[in-house]
Design brief:
The complex is a heterodimer of chains A (204) and B (527). By secondary structure, chain A is mostly helical. Helices cover 72% and strands 0% of the residues of chain A. With 527 residues, chain B is mostly helical. The radius of gyration of chain B is 26 Å and the shape is flat. The two termini of chain B are 20 Å apart. The chains are: A mainly alpha (204), B mainly alpha (527).
């Protein structure tokens, strides 16, 4: 982990909301602690939502810049995690929208894809007897990524929040400004569609 | 517990977000039901595959990067709290409410499309096959238009181009359902999606249709067109994603008023407003849109030369290699074609003066006018035919002319008179000319639906099933689906919807794609 040396035990114990309060008051180390807590979650969330790791890092930076700039807007009544995911979600949505408007640029990005090497590495070491035996890791990644990219952006992001960030329906609902029921149906649809696509490509 | 109910809870069950007693019921059901067991298995497998997608290792130190950026850009946190989250939430709720209110309108359009899908077979029955070249060209041109939609600043322009193509196919008296349907789908979706926030719902329906293969495989042996159709759908899909994320644009009042007039069928008045707007227009793109509207209306009124003038002005406002330039060129092409057709029509009119076979000539003129997009002219020609040829030998032709006359009205957004005409036709053609009767009833239901008379529309749709017992299962399924869908989405009547969807469980219908679709919609929680 970067910057481990200047992690202060005192800061590490505080709640997220507390940290925001402190950094708004001008304590930069509180802000840096928030970055450490969330950088991996946010970058990976954007990566899984957009399928582009390099962009995800850039957009992750942008997310934290916004947190920094707009920290005063944060209302401590709410969870900080909801707020930062809302920002990341908006950035991901914009990214996907821009991409659908300028497919040429996206195709170039897609061509020089394989940055997310840990994904491949993980698949290689996968020990389950499930699909990985049948398909090569490369194919697998292609299929999963393809299946994910077929999902509607909102569905995809809700699924990522549920599956990877282990957020509850209520938390996800807060991010989207929707009802928990809606999110439940999104996640259900997303999974169903995903499993159908994976089935079609004979992943399982 | 039945499947439908169980399926509602499956997601929460898998996620462990179900309370104990419900979870127990679901488990009991799973013991008995193989299909649901498989769903659970598939969804768990999907999750398992997903968990293999591990976090990537960062390539940079985020803290360092941010520290550097803050120092370099000299940014400081905003000192004043501009908008609290509560305020943002409030605005969001208002937007959501607005979306909800306007949603019903898109459902109307989307549901109407479904029926067009179902009744394609009637059209094919009524008409002969269209020469392959023409059809393919038409589909190609639609696909190319729709594919560009994602870059579109003005969705209406594409919609206009599409409508013209639909009209052209109609005018040849031999539209094939496989062409008409994607066109109508595309046109309707585009029209509604141009109301920005509606795009999402339309897209969802399209997505369902395409998932079921309903849109591209409506007719067997039509594989040739499947690709083009698929492309249309893809483009629509992209469009609605973009549209759903866009904020509604604030149009100047004059332009809004003009559009309202156009939508209510008062074309001349709308034209006046568009022209007035052009004088005052400050925004280039809005002025451009206004010129395109003007051209389109002029075409409908049969004044292709006026349309061309407007298009020349519009052309000057576009930049090379832009979508708007393409749209203008496409419309110019059509206006020029319309002018050519006009010459042929004039010749035919001269011939009318010295011939006995005037009925054929009038019919040809009417068809040519539809082809040229001249709805006003076509309407008056079919009106002439319907009034003048009252001899018994012309009985069927007259009925058909009346159908076409009403069709012109409905496509000029004159829904009131159109509905009245379809209404009379339903009675007059019954037992005389079945295809016209059914089509009229279908068009009446569609018009009622578009005008907001949902109850009546539902009755009409139901009546079609009664009146046509030997209807193919697919069409019957589509009709039940249609009514169920309206009840669910527009009337919030899930019980009524369930009753209609239940009818799809009959052995004869249960394997139809619409039946499967209905089941899925019912199963999805909180839809």
């Amino acid at each position: 982990m970067p910057g481990g040396a200047d992690t202060q035990p005192e800061t590490a114990k505080r709640t997220d909301e507390d940290l925001v309060q402190r950094f708004v008051e001008g304590r930069i180390e509180a802000f840096e602690e928030l970055i450490r807590r969330y950088q991996s979650k946010i970058v990976n969330f954007i990566n899984r939502s957009t399928g582009d790791y390099q962009r995800a890092e850039e957009l992750g930076q942008e997310t934290f810049m916004r947190v920094f700039r707009q920290g005063t807007r944060f209302d401590p009544k709410y969870r900080f995690s909801t707020w930062i995911y809302t920002i990341a979600r908006n950035l991901s949505s914009n990214e996907l929208r821009d991409r659908s408007r300028n497919p040429e640029t996206y195709n170039i990005r897609e061509a020089d894809w394989p940055r997310d090497s840990t994904f491949v590495a993980e698949l290689v070491s996968a020990d389950t007897h499930e699909p990985h035996q049948i398909l090569t890791t490369q194919e697998m990644r292609k299929h999963l990524e393809g299946a994910m990219s077929k999902l509607e952006p909102d569905l995809r992001m809700a699924l990522v929040m549920k599956e990877f960030d282990h957020m509850t329906y209520v938390e996800i609902a807060e991010v989207f400004g929707a009802s928990a029921g809606t999110i439940k149906s999104w996640v259900y649809r997303a999974k169903k569609q995903l499993s159908r696509t994976l089935k079609e490509s004979e992943v399982f | 517990m039945r499947c439908e109910l169980a399926e509602k809870h499956l997601a929460a069950y898998i996620d462990g977000e179900l309370d104990a007693s419900l979870a127990a019921s679901v488990e009991q059901h799973l013991k008995e039901c193989r299909a649901c067991r498989e769903t659970v298995r598939d969804m768990r497998l999907a999750s398992a595959v997903l968990t293999k997608w591990q976090n990537a290792r960062p390539t940079v130190s985020m803290v360092e990067v941010i520290r550097k950026r803050i120092a370099e850009e000299g940014i400081e946190p905003e000192s004043v709290s501009v908008k609290s989250i509560e305020e943002i939430r409030k605005r969001r709720r208002v937007r959501a409410a607005r979306r909800w209110v306007t949603k019903s309108r898109v459902t109307v359009a989307a549901a109407a499309v479904l029926l067009v899908v179902a009744f394609g077979w009637l059209l094919t029955r009524m008409q002969e096959g269209v020469p392959v070249r023409t059809t393919r060209d038409a589909v190609g041109s639609v696909a190319s238009i729709t594919l560009k939609v994602e870059r579109l600043e003005d969705v209406r322009s594409a919609e206009m181009a599409l409508e013209g193509t639909v009209g052209q196919l109609w005018s040849e008296r031999k539209p094939r359902a496989d062409v008409i349907v994607p066109l109508e789908v595309a046109g309707t979706m585009l029209r509604r999606a141009s109301d920005t926030s509606h795009g999402k719902h339309a897209g969802r329906l399209l997505e369902l249709l395409s998932e079921k293969g309903l849109a591209s495989r409506m007719h067997d042996g039509m594989d040739v067109f499947a690709d083009a159709t698929g492309e249309c759908l893809l483009a629509m899909f992209t469009l609605k994603t973009a549209a759903a994320q866009e904020q509604p644009t604030e149009l100047p009042t004059l332009l809004k008023e003009a559009t309202r007039l156009e939508m209510s069928g008062d074309l001349e008045a709308a034209l006046g407003k568009f022209k007035a707007y052009q004088v005052a227009a400050a925004d280039r793109l809005l002025a451009l849109r206004s010129y395109i509207h003007e051209a389109h209306i002029e075409m409908k009124l049969g004044r292709a030369s006026e349309a061309l003038k407007a298009l020349d002005r519009a052309y000057d406002m576009t930049k090379p290699k832009t979508f708007n330039r393409d749209v203008v060129l496409e419309l110019k092409l059509r206006a020029e074609r319309a002018r050519e057709i006009r010459k042929r029509i004039n010749k035919l009119k001269m011939e009318l003066l010295r011939t006995e076979r005037d009925f054929d000539l009038w019919s040809e003129i009417g068809n040519l006018q539809v082809k040229a997009g001249n709805l006003k002219g076509a309407r008056s020609t079919f009106d002439h035919i319907a009034r003048r040829y009252d001899a018994p030998t012309y009985r069927d032709d007259r009925l058909r002319a009346r159908l076409m006359r009403a069709w012109c009205d409905s496509r000029m957004n004159r829904l009131g008179p159109a509905q009245e005409a379809f209404d009379k036709l339903v009675g007059d053609a019954a037992g005389v000319y079945t295809e016209v009767a059914i089509l009229a009833q279908f068009e009446r239901a569609r018009t009622l639906h578009l005008r907001g008379y949902t109850g009546e529309a539902i009755r009409d749709y139901d009546a079609i099933v009664e009146a046509y017992p030997d209807m193919p299962p697919r069409c019957e399924a589509a009709l039940h689906f249609q009514v169920g869908y309206i009840k669910l989405n527009e009337q919030n009547d899930s019980e009524g919807a369930a009753r209609h969807f239940d009818r799809l469980k009959q052995d004869r219908l249960k394997d139809e794609p619409f039946s499967v679709l209905a089941l899925e919609i019912m199963a999805a929680p909180a839809m």
